[in-house]
Amino acid sequence: MPFSTDQDNALLDTLFGATTYLGLSTADPTKDGSGVAEPSGGAYARVEIDSSDWNAAAAGVKTNANTITFPTPTGSWGTPLYVVFYDAASGGNFLAYGAIDMPQAVNLGSTPPSFAAGELQVQAD
């Protein structure tokens, strides 16, 4: 039985109302978090997102209020295909994932991956 839109919004606001961490994956994650392949080395790190970086959920969708930018790569990160959300800077609980619309290779000297306000959308399903 699906939740109401009000409950979807409340769940999203609760889950993403605390600090969350945005990561990248070069492989297709599954709903249980297996399959995530985060880059290692090259200054890769998950990006901390606090509650002020999110808009209030509406119509069952939560979007980022501010631009979210990863650190400048000092080596190759491969080609991230997915964004992944966790509740910790490393390890932690897997919260959500989504495909990147236009994946691009990240190498030494590349512009760091960045998501403009409104570009990250988490939807209750």
Kindly describe this structure.
By secondary structure, the chain is mainly beta. It is 9% helix and 24% strand. The protein is built from 1 helix and 8 strands. The strands form 3 sheets. It has a 4-stranded antiparallel sheet, with no helix packed on it. A two-stranded antiparallel sheet has the order 3-8. Strands 4-7 form a two-stranded antiparallel ribbon. The radius of gyration is 14 Å and the shape is globular. The N and C termini lie close together (11 Å). The mean pLDDT is 94.
How far the N terminus sits from the C terminus, by CA atoms, comes to 11 Å
Order of helices and strands: HEEEEEEEE
* Main pleated sheet: 4 strands, antiparallel
| Average pLDDT over all residues | 94
**Percentage of residues in DSSP E strands:** 15-25%
